[in-house]
Design goal:
about 475 residues; alpha+beta; five-stranded mixed beta sheet; 15 helices; elongated
């Protein structure tokens, strides 16, 4: 995708729209002439770059502007060299410089690699609409734009997400989200279906690995900021290799085994999650309209009259009550243990299973329970079963700190849930099977609220 050319005997940047004159006019793309880019120089100065005209070349309409001696960032990323890393550092500095006007900048210019032209002394951020039209004309929207743009994020979060994709590419040589189909790619991005970079690039700096996971996992409650990546500018770490640590033969072998296990589990979870999404309406819709009105709403109304709270509980008691309630599908008690959106994903999951259990009780009268607690299943010998096993086992809660009226604990446990069961198919859907579990490590913060201890935040990571 060559952008350097010559028009009217002068060197320019030119962008082929892929449209003939009539189609160009019908699409209203003459408005592109009004778009502006931004040049950020290493000395901190900022200036505008303007589109200067439209010309016809080889039958297509070409938009052009003043020449800028440099290369698109995506070309540098493909090389995976220290030159590319330095360009990414410069990109990071430039975005921090523009941080005060990031909303305005995001609307005006592109931050995806193909929309940023890099030289030693300056960066050119091209107009976003121009980049979108030019890339679409090349038939490369998925590869050049969609891989670096989250479909739901905006503003500063969107920029951080794009930056994380760039880091993943430069340190691993691969795309974080490599799907070639646009719909599957968007779904993978929204669900955080990616391979952690420490599997793709063994020995990668743990800070990079942790920040990328915080960025890409939708369940993350600690989304990073651009400033969190400041260690990349450490003067002692000027090359890509400086962020890669050597591993012993045993560590490499263990990592390979762990990677294979992770890939299989992620594939199962993704298939199961999407299976339930596709069939949720069929499973719940027809029956839920009647049953929920009779069973669930009545239960909720009754519960709301006597909502549980944490009166008289110590912080440790609150934490233990929260996890016990989760295992018992008691979303009401869980709500009483938290403030605002703390534990929202847990409560939503338990609420869905609670509704499903009520629906099936009404629909499958006389049949054995379709959902059993993990503790009951374990106590009965942990035999293969066709029932849904849900709950918590091996819970260990340890205090972490007490400061400024806040208390924190570390909870380690295993969560047994439908999402971790082997993927259902024609052969196994009705066959007894061993349910799956996910080791978890939570850091729980609590604070006094109106005289009661309540959970204010849950930071979650996967255990071993």
């Amino acid at each position: 995708m060559e952008i350097h050319g010559e028009i009217e005997n002068r060197a320019v940047l030119c962008f082929d729209t892929g449209l003939k004159e009539r189609a160009f006019a019908q699409a209203g793309l003459s408005r592109l002439v009004m778009q502006e880019g931004i040049i950020v120089k290493r000395n901190g100065s900022v200036e505008k770059w303007k589109i200067e005209g439209v010309a016809e070349r080889e039958g297509n309409m070409v938009v052009w502007g003043k020449d800028f001696n440099g290369q698109p960032l995506d070309i540098l990323l493909e090389r995976g060299t220290d030159e590319a890393l330095n360009a990414v550092r410069f990109w990071w500095d430039a975005l921090l410089l523009l941080n005060q006007t990031i909303v305005e900048v995001k609307k005006a210019v592109s931050v995806v690699p193909c929309g940023v032209i890099c030289s030693n002394d300056a960066l050119l951020f091209l107009p976003e609409q121009l980049v979108a039209r030019y890339v679409e004309a090349q038939g490369q929207t998925v590869d050049k734009i969609m891989r670096y743009v989250h479909p739901d994020l905006t503003g500063q979060s969107a920029v951080v997400w794009s930056f994380a994709c760039i880091l993943y590419r430069i340190f691993s040589g691969n795309d974080a989200f490599p799907a070639v189909d646009a719909d599957i790619l968007r779904q993978d991005i929204r669900e955080g279906v990616f391979s952690p970079i420490h599997f793709v690039r063994p020995g990668i700096d743990g800070r990079i690995d942790a920040l990328l996971q915080r960025t890409f996992l939708p369940s993350s409650q600690a989304f990073p900021s651009l400033e969190d990546f400041s260690f990349l500018n450490d003067a002692a770490l000027l090359s890509i290799d400086a962020f890669i640590h050597s591993l012993s033969e045993e560590e490499t072998k263990n990592l390979s085994v762990e990677s294979a296990r992770f890939s299989k589990k992620q594939e199962r979870l993704t298939r199961i999650r999407r299976f339930f999404k596709r069939n949720r309406g069929i499973v719940i819709g027809a029956v839920a309209a009647v049953v929920i009105a009779v069973v669930v709403i009545g239960s909720v109304i009754q519960d709301r009259a006597n909502l549980p709270n944490t009166k008289g509980m110590t912080p440790l008691h609150v934490v233990e009550t929260y996890y016990t309630a989760m295992g018992n599908l008691d979303h009401i008690v869980m709500n009483g243990c938290v403030l605002k959106k703390a534990g929202k994903d847990d409560i939503d999951m338990v609420t869905e299973l609670f509704v499903l259990s009520k629906v099936r009780q009404a629909y499958e009268i006389g049949k054995p329970p379709s959902i059993i607690s993990a503790q009951t299943w374990l106590e009965n010998g942990a035999q293969p079963t066709t029932a849904i096993v849900f709950g918590i086992s091996h819970l260990e809660v340890k205090p972490l700190s007490v400061e400024d009226g806040e208390v924190s604990f570390r909870a380690e446990y295993k969560l047994w849930a439908p999402a971790f069961n082997p993927s259902p198919n024609d052969e196994t859907l009705d066959s007894p099977r061993i349910p799956g579990e996910q080791p978890r490590v939570d850091e729980i913060s609590l604070a006094l609220h109106k005289g009661l201890w309540r959970i204010t935040e849950i930071k979650r990571s996967l255990g071993r």
